[in-house]
Amino acid sequence: MTLPLEEDLLHIGPVCHPQAFAKEGAQVIATDVNESKLRELEAFPGIQVRVLDVTNKGQIENLAKEVKKIDVLCNVAGYVHHGTILDCDEKDWDFTMTVNVRSMYLMIKAFLPKMLEQKSGNIINMSSVASSIKGVANRCVYSTSKAAVIGLTKSVAADFVDQGIRCNCICPGTVDTPSLRERIQARPNPEQALKDMVARQKMGRLATAEEVAHLFVYLASDESAYVTGNQCTIDGGWSL
């Protein structure tokens, strides 16, 4: 698997596992709003860290000025709201759309011009099976936002396919992450909530973050050079 060496790879969010990219020889800039979590990555060779709020246009533009060259942009920041449309007030709707969709709009708009200048670039967005792929109970605004990510991905891919730009999105099912565990613990019966999530997985288990990271690395590599505009599902058969 081939990844660019001595270049800049921009990563957002923990599920993408920047270590997976660094192991392939990529130079990674890992960003997050959680500075303490970022500091844990500094020990890994090839990874730089930057505190970044991906909903803040000014912070994004400042980072774009700092990064001279970028080969791969991974947009992974996200928020999961629990509930139907009747449980979703305007504040929930706006916050979800800001974090899950507007952040990607801002990031792509800031870094795509650099890719166009160098006539090459690769954008990977985090979507979800809970989107236009599958209706999932109590995920109204989340699913709406992730369907929008699929639309954004296909639009960018179509507009810039002849200028050396690829754009794909990854659509996981339920992934075992610290965020998921926190949401499970917040439920009235955490043990039953976990059992219910596992029960709906046709393989009988949740996905690991490492498994999703492998798909990110593939889409970032030369081995996927003919892949663009795709929604790449990794859900253990949940959407079947």
Automatic annotation (TrEMBL):
<dbReference type="InterPro" id="IPR020904">
    <property type="entry name" value="Sc_DH/Rdtase_CS"/>
</dbReference>
<dbReference type="Pfam" id="PF13561">
    <property type="entry name" value="adh_short_C2"/>
</dbReference>
<comment type="pathway">
    <text>Siderophore biosynthesis.</text>
</comment>
<keyword id="KW-0520">NAD</keyword>
<comment type="similarity">
    <text>Belongs to the short-chain dehydrogenases/reductases (SDR) family.</text>
</comment>
<dbReference type="InterPro" id="IPR002347">
    <property type="entry name" value="SDR_fam"/>
</dbReference>
<comment type="pathway">
    <text>Amino-acid metabolism.</text>
</comment>
<dbReference type="InterPro" id="IPR051122">
    <property type="entry name" value="SDR_DHRS6-like"/>
</dbReference>
<keyword id="KW-0560">Oxidoreductase</keyword>
<protein>
    <recommendedName>
        <fullName>Dehydrogenase/reductase SDR family member 6</fullName>
        <ecNumber>1.1.1.104</ecNumber>
        <ecNumber>1.1.1.30</ecNumber>
    </recommendedName>
</protein>
<dbReference type="InterPro" id="IPR036291">
    <property type="entry name" value="NAD(P)-bd_dom_sf"/>
</dbReference>
